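Notebook, student rotation project (T.W.).
Task set for the rotation: take a protein with a known small-molecule partner, predict the structure of the complex, and write up what can be learned from the model alone. Partner molecule chosen: pyridoxal-5'-phosphate. Sequence and SMILES entered below by T.W., checked by me.
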Amino acid sequence: MIKVPLLDLSMQNGALAEELTAAFQRVLNSCCFIMGPELENFEKNSAAFCEAKHGLGVSSGTDAILLALMALDIKAGDEVLVPAFTFFASGGCVARLGATPIWVDVDPHTFNIDLADAAQKVSSRTKAVMPVHLFGQAADMDAVMSFAKKYNLRVVEDCAQSIGAKWKGRNVGTFGDFGAFSFFPSKNLGGFGDGGLVTTSDPDLFQRARILRVHGMDPKYYHSYIGANFRMDALQAALLSVKLPHLSGYNRKRVENAAYYRELLKTHPLVSDNIATAPDSSVILLPCDLSGGEAIWNQFTLRIRGEGKRNALRAHLVAKNIGCDIYYPLSLDQQVCFQEIGQGGETIKVSHQLGHEVLSIPVYPELSQAQKETVVEAIIEWLNTQKS
Ligand SMILES: *Cc1c(COP(=O)(O)O)cnc(C)c1O
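Predicted structure of the complex:
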């Protein structure tokens, strides 16, 4: 039986083992482990990849978000509009600064921020909005930017899952005040431990973030802000520099894999690729790409409708050695740690529904044809046991 893990990094990193080892050796010999030319080189090239003016290598995607919010002076008493359906860090960073994340529902097609709901939640304390380009698909950045302009809000784009994704031809992370990227190993540019990147095109914000990254220190031992240590290791930068030139290729493979799934699955009578026109009988809804085919599919996430059906499909796939997982079982308003914020409730219906319906299947670049066929066959086999 062919095994299909949800993610397998061994081939991608194995293919570069020699170059990675050489990069490690280079840093070892240099004895320059903090800041320095390896980091500067990676920052220059990764910012260029993202078509951003400035890039700042940081310790993680979470710290990228935190640093961006700090540079925008988000603090206690402020509110930030954050989609409820996302990874914890998007909202967690807002709360860590003493500000209040205001949960916003998501669009059922794209799983990205629902601005009609956001508009209901703007108050005199609202300082920023955080579109999350979830699963590798850009949020509608024309709409986000005009929303932000209308209400005079700062914009921090959570690009952790979407490096290289575009909205109408323009890279995510270049629309807002800041873009925040992650190199956690499961992201599209997967590092060797934790790492992240902050992008901005504003020279003043860049300077502020740069200084905040090193304890608000400039020059040495003179501290004008209360920052922290948000640095990316030189070693991480050197290793990521080996993989960066391959990122477009990795993304292209993910796009091909997603297209393959779509083509083969959408012909089944119980599958729909358009929620707006899907008949009630559709059991599986395929993810929609509204950005014009430039999503980079960090996850390929199905919606499985009907009581208990998502868990049934998951059990079926697991029994066939096909990796799959639920991103995310709870939306942020439902997390125990956020109960005292206590808002959202009825207004975030889609996010709550998604928690019961989503299932992400393997879409990583190195999937073989046989593995992809195995995934499709297993899903169709399960669908054929379902009643329409
Ligand atoms: C991974 C992720 C983060 C955090 O990145 P880390 O590098 O793991 O700290 C933030 N937001 C989203 C949407 C993510 O997927």
